[in-house]
Structure formats: structure tokens, C-alpha cells
Design brief:
Blueprint lengths: L5 H24 L7 H23 L3 H30 L12 H7 L2 H10 L2 H4 L4 E2 L2 E2 H21 L9
Antiparallel strand pairs: 1-2
Helix pairs in contact: 1-2, 1-7, 2-3, 2-5, 2-7, 3-7
Main location: membrane
GO molecular function: electron transfer activity; protein-disulfide reductase activity
Membrane topology: Multi-pass membrane protein
């Protein structure tokens, strides 16, 4: 059995990220689940991971470029997974220790300085501590962490695997 090419794997990573975003938008617009600041931050890193994979797919670079794109895919997935873990930590806190709920993201960006709004997005607030949906006992950031772990592993595999140049006939 032949392994998928580096290019094919990048396409799979990109399509996986598109699928994750589709699920996120479905949950937001069809199920009415409003994303919290940490959810939005995780979305940014899903998109970033997908963009790196799409660029690698379209560019189809040689060895150094392949390794650079793979590193960027793995790094963005790793950072996104860190934000998922932060949200899981907030969800595990007792109610009296959870941070207070903040205003909506739209309100923050309209009212606060950009740096303050960005700080709240990255740290999370009480809205992020609320578990609004679970599947098999795992909340949304838990499933997002699983997805980031898979994306990280694919990026790492791309980084460490052997390189075969693409031949065009």
C-alpha cells in the first residue's frame, strides 16, 4: 500500500479544516450556540492551519518549502490546541472560581481598544467556562482539542517523512 503524497496530505489537512469550520458554523447558526472568545480564537487557528496546508498544496514546494509548511501547520495546530486546553481548564473550574462573564465579542471590539479586546479573546472569560453542548461526554473544546491533535500529528508526520519530488509528465 502506497502512502498518500505530501501534496495529497496537505489537501486532506485543508479539507479537514474546512470541515471543522463548517461544523462550527452549523453549531452557531443552526443550533444557536454563540461562540465565546476562546472559541473564536480556536477558529482563527483552525483557519490558519488550513491556510498553511492549502498554500503547501498549491505551491507544491521542494524539500525545504515542504518542511517549512509542515512546521507551520504543526505549530498553528499546537497553539490552537493550547487554547482548547485553556478553555477545558476554565470549564473544569468550580462556578465560584470561574472568571466573570464578559460582553460579546462585537461589543468588545467596538468599545475597547483593540489590544484589550484581543487580550480577552486570548484569555477567555466566564462565557468560555460554560459547557453548552457535549457529545459522548466531551464538550466542544474537547473535540476541538482532538482535532488539533490530529492536525498536529499530520503536520509532524509531514515534517518528518521522507521527501519524494513530484514528477510531472
Amino acid at each position: 500500500m502506497q502512502l498518500p503524497s505530501i501534496r495529497q496530505t496537505n489537501l486532506v489537512i485543508f479539507l479537514g479544516c474546512c470541515g471543522l469550520m463548517a461544523v462550527g458554523y452549523f453549531m452557531q447558526y443552526m443550533l444557536g450556540l454563540e461562540p465565546c472568545p476562546l472559541c473564536m480564537t480556536q477558529r482563527v487557528f483552525i483557519i490558519l492551519t488550513g491556510v498553511w496546508a492549502l498554500l503547501a498544496y498549491l505551491h507544491s514546494p521542494a524539500l525545504i518549502g515542504t518542511r517549512v509548511y509542515a512546521f507551520l501547520v504543526a505549530l498553528s495546530a499546537l497553539i490552537g490546541g493550547g487554547f482548547s486546553m485553556r478553555q477545558l481548564h476554565l470549564q473544569s473550574l468550580p462556578a465560584e472560581l470561574a472568571p466573570t462573564c464578559g460582553p460579546s465579542i462585537d461589543y468588545m471590539f467596538e468599545t475597547f481598544p483593540f489590544t484589550k479586546a484581543l487580550e480577552v479573546m486570548l484569555k477567555g472569560d466566564g462565557n468560555c467556562a460554560e459547557v453548552v453542548w457535549t457529545f459522548m461526554g466531551i464538550s466542544i473544546p474537547g473535540w476541538t482539542l482532538v482535532a488539533f491533535a490530529g492536525l498536529f500529528m499530520l503536520g509532524l508526520w509531514q515534517l518528518l517523512r521522507g521527501y519524494k519530488p513530484v514528477t510531472v509528465l
